[in-house]
UniProtKB/TrEMBL annotation:
It comes from Phyllobacterium bourgognense. InterPro entries: ATP-grasp, ATP_grasp_subdomain_1, Dala_Dala_lig_C. The keyword Cytoplasm does not apply. GO terms for molecular function: ATP binding; D-alanine-D-alanine ligase activity; metal ion binding. Residues 114-318 form the ATP-grasp domain. This is D-alanine--D-alanine ligase. Belongs to the D-alanine--D-alanine ligase family. Keywords: ATP-binding, Ligase, Nucleotide-binding.
Length: 326
């Protein structure tokens, strides 16, 4: 039995401060924290809610300690926002679950993650980064392209107009994202093929695929793109399915290679999409995956493989415990 602290950013808290629904889309709902607590309790552990990185800093400064921390704190600002809680925990030598500050910072900045995996020989679509309006003229990638904010999750900033067909659309699209999200824009060669998200458990050579889920979009207003709006209306617009064929197995192999390359730990997801030739390509990694028992992709993949939510949490705790306490 361990005393396990839980770090998180709660949507309701930020909503009360006036943040918009889109701004807080990545944060946890109260039922997620309650589900994590319930699972940990059923495994024999006691829990304490810590909250945000700022709350964690206060608690650590007051001398509070835990045997292990379940880190789900996303942070609000900057490329290092997801790294804040684990960096504090490392400073005070408190062990925690999931990725370290380096992995979380690299993977949040999608262009850096793509650069790292590409340099390791892992296939990913060609890309460019637009930091200012003047950078648009230097983009020389073949159309169609795909644009998105460089450091957002939950498909924030992705919509029907993210697929770019010509230079005029590239200009207007980048201007829109730069103004709205106040961060660089990732510009990629559009991948028209099948899309997968691979659930991963474990660390390093012990990492393995929990299952590969194909994202199949139903007929709707944004039929080609797993957009923010499609994710928001997941039940009505998405028909996910667990798949096991040659392409999905190639996707899982690529995802594991990327996970190890980027330093993912304990549990998370890697998103993969096929190009026009049917070859799998790395899209992005999520080493701090959502854990809502019904709506989040990693628990959904677990459920599709007949792994209960409690068992999923148990495997994550076991991975962290083996890594830390061996």
């Amino acid at each position: 039995m361990m005393k396990i602290g839980i770090t998180f950013d709660l949507r309701d808290d930020y909503a009360k401060e006036g943040y918009s629904e889109e701004e807080i889309a990545e944060f946890d709902r109260l039922e997620t924290i309650e589900a994590i607590e319930s699972a940990l309790h059923s495994l024999g552990h006691s829990t304490e809610r810590i909250g945000t990185a700022k709350a964690l800093a206060m608690r650590l400064g007051q001398g509070d300690r835990w045997d292990l921390v379940f880190n789900s704190a996303e942070g609000m600002y900057g490329f290092g926002r997801q790294a804040l809680a684990p960096a504090l925990l490392e400073a005070y030598e408190v062990p925690y679950m999931f990725a370290d500050p380096l992995c979380l910072t690299v993977t949040l900045h999608k262009a850096t993650a793509k650069q790292v995996v590409r340099d390791s020989g892992i296939r990913t679509a060609d890309f460019a980064v637009v930091e200012t309006i003047s950078d648009i003229t230097s983009v020389s990638l073949p159309f169609p392209l795909f644009i998105k904010p460089i450091a957002e999750g939950t498909s924030k900033g992705i919509s029907a107009v993210s697929k770019i067909h010509d230079r005029g659309e590239l200009q207007s699209g980048c201007e829109r994202l730069l103004a709205r999200h106040r961060q660089p824009v990732l510009v990629e060669v559009y991948l028209p093929g099948r899309e997968f998200t691979v659930g991963i458990l474990g660390t390093g050579s012990a990492a393995y695929s929990l299952g590969t889920m194909e994202i199949v979009l139903k007929d709707g207003p944004e039929p080609e793109i797993y957009s923010y709006d499609n994710k928001k209306h997941f039940d009505e617009r998405v028909a996910p399915r667990l798949v096991d064929d040659a392409t999905s197995r190639a996707a899982a192999d690529l995802a594991i290679a990327a996970w190890m390359c980027l330093g993912g730990r304990d549990g998370g997801r890697v998103d993969v999409r096929c190009d026009s030739a049917g070859e799998v390509n790395f899209m992005e990694a999520n080493p701090l995956a959502g854990m809502h028992p019904r709506d989040s992709d990693l628990p959904l993949i677990a459920r599709m493989t007949n792994l209960s939510y409690v068992s999923l949490i148990e495997k994550i705790v076991a991975s962290a415990s083996t890594r830390i306490f061996r």
